Structure formats: structure tokens, C-alpha cells
Amino acid sequence: MVPPAVWNEVVDPAMAAAGARDVAGCKWVEIVTPDATAVAPLLILLGVGEAEAIALAQRETSAVLLLDDLRARKIAARLNLRRMGTIALLGRARRAGLVDKLRPLLDGLLDCGIHIRPELIEAALKEVGE
């Protein structure tokens, strides 16, 4: 499930995000609009995408939030929501054999301008044996 704000941010052609076309073509992604009354108080501290994602996770008890924004992660933790970051998700995919190597994926994120602390990269690679 993806809230509309996140979907629009990811697939917006004006943003020219890497992989946007691939994501836009995914039939398994369900766009779900959260309750506006749950989103509103979160907007005080968060952007609309993070606020909508957290509001959805509050409604869907089995949800695991994919969050990289530190403030959003802290708020999700205070709300006792299950969460993980992109690096953890990619590490799980590597350990499950869904991807052959983690390093090229991390390099791809860096090439797209995503900032990842070098210590986090090294820890993730060590964890998967690369």
C-alpha cells in the first residue's frame, strides 16, 4: 500500500526519479488514501508523504512502514509502529536471495543523489557478507 502523496512523489515525471516508470507500471501497488483526520496532526511535524504513510500504518495493524526520514522514524517509533529503512529492506532482499548483490543497489542509490552514511553502507554490506 502506498499513500497518494508518496505515489505522486515517486512517479511524477517532473521529478525524473530513477525507476519512476517501473514503479508506475507495477500492478501490485495499491494506492490507499488515509483518513484526513489522522493525517492532519502529523502534518505539524512531517511532510505530507510521511504523514500519510504513518496514518495508513496506524490503520493497518500488519503494516511495516518504509521510512528513511529520521523525524518520521522517531514519530513512528513513539506510535509503536513497525518500521524499517530502505537499507534494511535491501538487506532482507539480499539475505532472502531476491537480489544477488547489495553493493550495486547501494551504489545506485548514491548515484541517484541519495545520501547514505558510509558507516551504514559498510555495516549493511558486512551483515550480508559482502
Describe the structure.
The chain has 130 residues and is mostly helical. The protein has helices at residues 4-11, 20-24, 36-39, 48-59, 70-78, 86-95, 103-111, 118-127, and strands at 65-66, 83-84. It has two domains: 4-84, no CATH class; 86-127, no CATH class. Helices cover 52% and strands 3% of the residues. Helix 5 (70-78) links the parallel strand 1 (65-66) and strand 2 (83-84). Helix 1 (4-11) packs across helix 4.
Keywords, separated by commas or semicolons:
mainly alpha, two-stranded parallel ribbon, single chain, 2 domains, 2 strands
Question: From the alpha-carbon coordinates, what is the Rg to the nearest angstrom?
Answer: 15 Å
Distance between the termini: 31 Å
In the predicted model, the low-confidence regions spanning at least 5 consecutive residues are none
Class based on secondary structure composition and strand pairing:
mainly alpha
Helix content: 40-55%
Element order, helices and strands?
Answer: HHHHEHEHHH
Number of strands: 2
Outline the biggest β-sheet. Answer: 2 strands, parallel
* Total domain units: 2
